[in-house]
């Protein structure tokens, strides 16, 4: 196993902490949706809310996984940027869907695809990081 320098340890901590926070919030939000919104919003609204929770959890998990990737030699800078895009995706994609369902405000609809694009950019950056050697 490669030794982790202090700069990588810092990257590991913030990605791990934010991924864990996003996961915790996804569980809490999912429980709220399952128990607090049934009968309050339409079945379609519940489906949209569940989609937001699912995508938030998927990306919380990848943030936690990404926090460990510098230890196996993946380029830290690309991972940092990818994590930033995944966090933006959580806020823009899942956040806009939560607000759409809870407030009924439809002007948020165009924000959701921007969050989806952020998710995709993060994944593309991970592909690039996986194929690139770490510069030491």
From TrEMBL:
Keyword Plastid: no
Cell compartments where the protein resides: Membrane
Highest taxon listed in the record's lineage: Bacteria
Protein keywords: Membrane, Transmembrane, Transmembrane helix
Membrane topology of the entry: Multi-pass membrane protein
Family: Belongs to the UPF0382 family.
UniProt-recorded name of the protein: Uncharacterized membrane protein YgdD (TMEM256/DUF423 family)
Source organism (scientific name): Marinobacter persicus
């Amino acid at each position: 196993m490669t030794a982790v320098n202090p700069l990588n340890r810092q990257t590991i901590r913030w990605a791990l902490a934010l991924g864990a926070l996003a996961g915790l919030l996804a569980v809490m939000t999912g429980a709220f949706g399952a128990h607090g919104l049934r009968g309050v919003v339409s079945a379609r609204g519940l489906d949209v809310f569940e989609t937001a929770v699912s995508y938030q959890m998927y990306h919380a998990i990848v943030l936690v996984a990404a926090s460990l990737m510098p230890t196996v030699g993946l380029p830290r800078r690309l991972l940092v940027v990818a994590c930033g895009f995944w966090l933006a995706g959580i806020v823009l994609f899942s956040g806009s869907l939560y607000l759409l369902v809870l407030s009924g405000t439809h002007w948020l609809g165009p924000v959701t695809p921007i969050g989806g694009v952020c998710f995709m950019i993060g994944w593309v950056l991970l592909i690039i990081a996986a194929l690139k050697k770490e510069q030491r």
